[in-house]
Design goal:
This protein is an alpha/beta fold and 362 residues long. The chain has a single domain, classed as Rossmann fold (3-Layer(aba) Sandwich), CATH 3.40.50. 40% of the residues lie in helices and 10% in strands. It has 13 helices and 8 strands. Strands 3-2-1-4-5-6-7-8 form an 8-stranded mixed sheet, with helices on both faces. GO terms for molecular function: oxidoreductase activity.
């Protein structure tokens, strides 16, 4: 479903004018799937800002360094053409990072680079994902959609968590880190932005089929495999917020139905998919509009994103700062499974068990 602000009650948001000047200035951001689609557009919006508002570094993650560099070149050209900064060189801020979420070895390698070269991490945008793909497994044997959309991102988060917490626990007052240009210190406001989907409502009967996750799960529909991975995104976000209530703000969101490469497997699945995609394209958002919700989530004032603490069951007043948002910035309720505290705890424990001992080597 494509959510239009005046129909869904979402906020009016224009990244070119509505990102507060201090929201990302001097900060470090990491975006998975940054070479195309919503990730690339998000990075463009982060740097299509006045020089006084720019982040200090953005890690653009891609499975291919060649595609990452091509995206950086495209972003440079787009910023220059916009007139905001005619001499802008994206490579001065954006760094390519090779990352394949289907491989623990690749994830560890990427985390090692970030931990070595960055002394802070303010925004972790878990944007990459696959949708309704053919059956398959990751390098470690997990169902391909669950392994990519949830477990790969969970491992990346685990490995970067010390840096996120270090940033969140930065000293106050005059001891806060200052940007190189001498502007005011950076106040810690660490956010993890997780792209889920309204597809989280279409899952197997048990919500998540834990017993067969280390297989291709060919016995259930591809959309159910996708749905359980997106459900896991929401549950993981709630658990992360509950475990680190004073340090992290977690925003899970649905970007809307956006015309990106995510739809290619569906389009290529046969004549029905091809025909349906031909019709759907008239109802899909552009990438520029589709990225607004996650850019808002990363940059909006805290009073907008931290409405009230929510416990893992979705009840207000609980432990942890976490919410689920439709475009743009409209907080809504999730599915029943996404509010199931016991399922959330089981996912957290299962994930911890699967990732036990997977660390960044010195």
């Amino acid at each position: 479903m494509n959510y239009i602000p005046f129909l869904s009650g979402g906020r009016s948001f224009n990244p070119r004018t509505d990102i507060p000047s201090s929201a990302i200035h001097g900060k470090t951001i990491l975006v998975t799937g940054g070479n195309a689609g919503l990730g690339k557009q998000s990075i463009l919006e982060f740097v299509r800002q006045p020089a006084s508002s720019l982040p200090s570094r953005i890690w653009l993650c891609s499975r291919s360094l060649e595609r990452a560099q091509s995206a950086i070149d495209d972003i440079s050209a787009a910023v220059q053409a916009s007139g905001v900064n005619p001499d802008f060189d994206a490579s001065s801020i954006i760094k390519p990072l090779e990352l394949d979420l289907t491989s623990f070895a690749s994830i560890k390698s990427a985390a090692r680079v970030v931990l070595k070269e960055s002394d802070r991490l303010d925004i972790l945008m878990l944007n990459a994902g696959i949708m309704a793909t053919a059956t398959g497994v990751t390098a470690e044997g997990y169902e391909i959609q669950f392994g990519t959309n949830h477990l790969g991102h969970a491992l990346l988060t685990k490995l970067l968590l010390p840096l996120l917490l270090k940033t969140a626990r930065s000293a106050t007052g005059n001891d806060l880190p200052r940007p190189a240009d001498g502007s005011p210190p950076i106040t810690p406001d660490v956010r993890v932005v997780i792209l889920s989907s309204e597809g989280h409502r279409f899952t197997p009967l048990s919500g998540i089929n834990f017993d067969t996750l280390k297989s291709n799960q060919s016995s259930i529909l591809t959309w159910q495999r996708y749905g359980q991975s997106k459900l896991a995104n929401i549950l993981f976000g709630k658990q992360l917020a509950a475990h680190y209530p004073d340090e992290l703000t977690i925003l899970t969101l649905h970007p809307g139905a956006v015309n990106t490469r995510l739809f290619h497997p569906f389009r290529d699945s046969g004549w029905v998919g091809w025909a349906a995609t031909g019709v759907l394209k008239f109802f899909l958002s552009t990438v520029e509009d589709g990225a607004k919700n996650q850019v808002w989530a990363a940059t909006a004032p805290r009073e907008q994103v931290v409405v009230q603490a929510a416990d893992p069951s979705g009840k207000e007043g609980g432990k942890g700062r976490c919410g689920y948002f439709l475009p743009v910035g409209k907080r809504v309720g999730e599915s029943g499974w996404a509010k199931d505290e016991e399922l959330g705890r089981r996912l957290w424990e299962w994930t911890e068990g699967e990732l036990k001992g997977v660390e960044v080597e010195e």
